[in-house]
Amino acid sequence: MSHMIADLDVGPLGLGGNVFGWTADEATSHAVLDAFVAAGGRLIDTADGYSYWAPGHVGGESESVIGSWLESRGCRDDVVIATKVSTKPGREGLAPANVRQALEESLERLGTDFVDLYYAHFDDPDTPLEETVSVFEELRSSGMVRHVGLSNYTPQRIEQWVRTASRLGCAAPVALQPHYNLLHRSEVEGVGGRGEVAASHGMALLPYFPLAAGFLTGKYRRGQVTHGDRAAMVSGYLREDCFAVVDVLTDIGDRHKVEPAAVALAWLRDRPGVTAPLPSARNLDQLRAILPALSLQLDEEEARLLTQVSDAAQA
């Protein structure tokens, strides 16, 4: 399976940067980034809004941490950097002037002249699509952005963006970042879903929340009260049919001598249209659990079992 997005070699697994500067401090984040690249990882995904939701944070923290790492390691040419625009407080939305300013600020925090992949993080229905498409093309043509991506867009709006880009003579988006994992498939799979629309336009799928906010790592137990930063996110998964998915992940992981997280990522990595899932890791232990997904190969029966138990867990 190809791990190319246009001319970008992103590898089979990316690293989500939402935890950097939030649940992972700068030193820990740098250690995670070092280990990810040492293992062969290339794609680092962030957003200007990360981590505005944390007390005392304003957004931009993740980009700043990645920027300090890039500067100290001198490794900009060895990695693929993706970031997004539309959620940072004070930089919300996709109006052209806002997008231009947001990118300049992102580049400053990242300490780089360009980003490889620049996403519209969330749709902005208040800004005419022609204006948003045009400003992304302006930034791409200037060299500050190599390629354009979309995240959290509906199939209908993806189609509209692509048609608008074609009509205006702008480059089409090359990547789509959807919410997709063993417990959350309906928005991507099936007739008219994000996967079908992306495939019809040659867009790579780079799923976020590939481990269902940590539930698919196996760290949650039946009957256990959840705590921590992501407790609210996993509350909807505390059902027997979801735990059954984790049981199968654990069994397959034991067979391969890897953690359940690596199995979940390998299943997702091999789904039609997927180029690279985007798990995050707030420490080296979490990273070690997911790194085998760079190369882990599931056989047909293992993949079938996971798909079957996943089918039963779809809410």
Explain this structure:
By secondary structure, the chain is an alpha/beta fold. The protein contains 11 helices and 9 strands. It has helices at residues 26-38, 61-73, 96-110, 129-142, 155-168, 194-200, 231-234, 240-256, 260-269, 284-290, 300-313, and strands at residues 4-5, 8-9, 15-16, 43-45, 80-85, 115-120, 145-151, 175-177, 204-205. The strands form 2 sheets. Strands 3-4-5-6-7-8-9 form a 7-stranded parallel sheet, with helices on one face. A two-stranded antiparallel sheet has the order 1-2. Helix 4 (129-142) packs across helix 5 (155-168), helix 8 crosses helix 9 and helix 8 runs antiparallel to helix 11 (300-313). The two termini are 30 Å apart.
Helix amount: 40-55%
Number of strands: 9
Strand order of the largest sheet: 3-4-5-6-7-8-9
**Poorly predicted tracts of residues:** none
Proportion in β-strands: 5-15%
Describe the biggest sheet?
Answer: 7 strands, parallel
Rg, Å, rounded: 19 Å
Number of helical regions: 11
Briefly say what this structure is.
The chain has 315 residues and is an alpha/beta fold. 41% of the residues lie in helices and 10% in strands. Strand 7 (145-151), helix 5 and strand 8 form a beta-alpha-beta unit.
